[in-house]
Amino acid sequence: MLKSVDGLMKPFMHECNMDSLKSIDELRAVASGLRKEGLNSQQIADELSLSQDTIAWLLAGSNQEEKPKDVRIGWRTIGVKPKRIAAIASVMADVVDEEIGAQNVDTIVGISINGISFAHEVASMTDSDVTVFRYVESHEGQGVLSNKYGKVSGKKIVIVDDVLSTGVT
After folding, report:
1. At 137, phi and psi to the nearest 5?
2. Widest CA span in the chain
């Protein structure tokens, strides 16, 4: 879910999923909508995770040949490379250690589906058990812990999820 720093975004933007924006025309429409909402180029760039040069190009309606060379990093960029998962998980494990001490964590809970690979890596790095939480489709907002992994009852846990895939969690 997109959220403006200034809270200026209208409801239509809250429905927008950046992962689903595939075409230049869609990006241009979203950038124009944000401009109409009163956001400046820097705020639009922040909202869309694009450079200010690209925002200027989108808002100017420039042709394809002049387009800036942004590199979009989404779930597929990260999730298909185990080394990248491990690198990000290393940062997560470092934060866990800094904030609560890795020795104080019993179980790492990975939120299905994209949080699972991060959780496995963090658990390995913190010498913790791992378990998986998955949603129950028939009950919106509810889920269950898998009984095939570590238990959480009475344990000190850390919950690991990604925010790149849907932003729903």
Report:
1. -60, -35
2. 59
CB under 8 Å to 91, separation ≥6 — which residues?
Answer: none
Host H or E run for residue 31: helix 24-36
pLDDT in tens, 77-118: 888 899 999 999 999 999 999 999 999 999 999 998 889 999
Beta bridge partners of 157: 107
Domain 11-66 has CATH 3.30.70: no
| CA count, 13 A, side-chain hemisphere, 73 | 6
What are the structural domain ranges in the chain? 11-66, 75-160
Report the CATH architecture of 75-160.
Answer: 3-Layer(aba) Sandwich (3.40)
The whole model's pTM is what?
0.60
Q: Which amino acid is at 93?
A: A
Spatial separation of the C-alpha atoms in residues 139 and 122, rounded to whole Å: 29
The Cα–Cα gap between 59 and 80 comes to: 33
**pLDDT per position as a tens digit, 130-158:** 999 988 777 776 788 888 887 899 999 99
E strand map for the chain: 107-111, 129-135, 143-145, 157-160
